Amino acid sequence: MKKMNKANNTLKEIAEILVASKSVLLFPHTHMDGDALGSSAALCAALRKLGKQAYILIEDEIAAFLKFLDKDFCTSDLEIISQPDVCLCMDCGDVSRFQKREEKFLSGKQKGCLDHHTTTVPFADFNYIDSTAAATGEIVYDLLQELPVELDKEIGSALFAAITTDTGNFQYSNTTGKTHQIAADLWDRGVDYNEVSVELYQNNRLEKLLLQTRILQGLHVFAGGQAAICGFTEEMLRETGGLRDEAEGVVEIMRNIAGVELAIFVKEVSSQECKVSMRSKKYVDVAAIGQKLGGGGHVRAAGCTVKEGYEKTIQVMMGLAEEQLKGQI
Amino acid sequence: MKKMNKANNTLKEIAEILVASKSVLLFPHTHMDGDALGSSAALCAALRKLGKQAYILIEDEIAAFLKFLDKDFCTSDLEIISQPDVCLCMDCGDVSRFQKREEKFLSGKQKGCLDHHTTTVPFADFNYIDSTAAATGEIVYDLLQELPVELDKEIGSALFAAITTDTGNFQYSNTTGKTHQIAADLWDRGVDYNEVSVELYQNNRLEKLLLQTRILQGLHVFAGGQAAICGFTEEMLRETGGLRDEAEGVVEIMRNIAGVELAIFVKEVSSQECKVSMRSKKYVDVAAIGQKLGGGGHVRAAGCTVKEGYEKTIQVMMGLAEEQLKGQI
């Protein structure tokens, strides 16, 4: 059932390269999610247990809910290892996803890539790209079976974080029986699911909840119940103390309303500019709407920038939504 | 590691009783959650495949997000089976949790109980109470191993719904390695996790979102940020069109606030009665608070009834919360 790319190396070959190395730098993509950082943290811990000099090289902030994963693994010091034996691209398949670190990545004596994204094609000296893996964490789990290191609670907890976040807690369509088999094995290795989950999901800032509640007070359902729109103004951010990133998830909440096909989320940037995120449930091509305004994205998740104030942007987007739902674009 | 109650029967014994029976009535608790209905639906489907006359006898409405589980299993007709061979108490351990059906339950030639709640003590003719099980769905899964019936996609999907809802999608502390082993096995039996998940979580009524937003506008954080409380009045239900069951999840949203250890949710039943749900994050024993008021449940999830109006109940619970947090109960 595995859709392996022909140019993939085996995990055994990759394990041998890592065992033979002295220093390894790991490169997760920018805007690290749980899988990018969790899979990197697990592998970094394992490599250190093997006596390697290993770091996760990053270029942006670690999101608050993921900070527990960084046990002195992460650094933004490009010279932490001057001439790394191995540079590994983690959970992404393109150096454009870490532009500030691209040169450093290319300086590795050997460059590798571990990823599960469907769009990734092998580009490094060695690669393991498996789009049937629910998370890069699953690939690291398999790789660890080939390494002479014990998969202990610390490593396992990072893998659980990677897997549970990237599968929407075992609910997304990428989740398979293997995902659960790995989770069961991690339990036997001492992982406390709830302990990881509390770190990931139970440390939401109160201000985030206040912001999301304030945003949803402005929810507007239109087009006969097929579309929903809401957003935040800068005033709402001030009023609630919430941060811009803390509105994440609201667009999915709208999409999850029964009957809603198209969800539109508007973020005021200034009195003359708003950013817009869109999601669709089954059939509307939101990338087409985004392209109308110079944006883009995927068929079910896209965005654009509107050079208007908040209220006007709401009107513009409602108009475009009505048009799209009528099949007029 | 299993904390079996001494008076438990074996699942083999229970399977033999069911195989020897001709008719079985299942009694989930009122205000059915995913586990009560999911575990009952799975067992009902299995019993019918064994040629039994089997129904789930209910006395209240099925929540919208759970309706897909009822494949003509549920009835509120007390005379659907006039003299049932077996009556089974599902996911609860006390006939007081189905008062309108108590007499019918007691009319069963043999009465049994399958439950995983810590406060349940064996009271029926035969019992299987395992507080280490994450869900009654896990117990039904084990019971099915003893029954001469194939655990197919239909049965497995109901079990997945039971397990995923009762474990907060595999995040609560009741989740164990076994929970994931079961989920992995259900995959092999054809269960599509995402299909079940879309039914459970992506068909939310708009009125539910309006109700939850209205409820969260009344959020109150107290005890130095360690506790949070909110709830709904009957007026909020009328105003938003939301149903009582659609407030589910708000107590977890409160618990997930950073620093909040104890979350309390108050549901107005009448001007003289409220139902209260509680969740704790790490150390507060909410069952102990519940028991103070004649309720009960688990250490991290419990409930009780307060014979007061909404505002007074909020006050009572805030007082108990402050006491418990000071270690005074």
Word description of this protein:
The structure is a homodimer. By secondary structure, chain A is α/β, with parallel strands linked by helices. The first copy, chain A, has two domains: about 190 residues, inorganic pyrophosphatase (n-terminal core) (Alpha-Beta Complex), CATH 3.90.1640.10; about 120 residues, Diaminopimelate Epimerase, Chain A, domain 1, CATH 3.10.310. In chain A, about 40% of the residues lie in helices and about 20% in strands. The first copy, chain A, contains twelve helices and twelve strands. In chain A, the strands form two sheets. In chain A, strands 3-2-1-4-5-6 form a six-stranded parallel beta sheet. In chain A, strands 7-8-9-10-12-11 form a six-stranded mixed beta sheet, sandwiched between helices. In chain A, strand 1, helix 2 and strand 2 form a beta-alpha-beta unit. In chain A, helix 2 packs antiparallel against helix 5 and helix 5 packs across helix 7. The longest helix of chain A has 16 residues. The first copy, chain A, starts with 10 loop residues before the first helix and ends with a helix. Chains A and B meet through helix 6, helix 7 and helix 8 of A and helix 6, helix 7 and helix 8 of B.
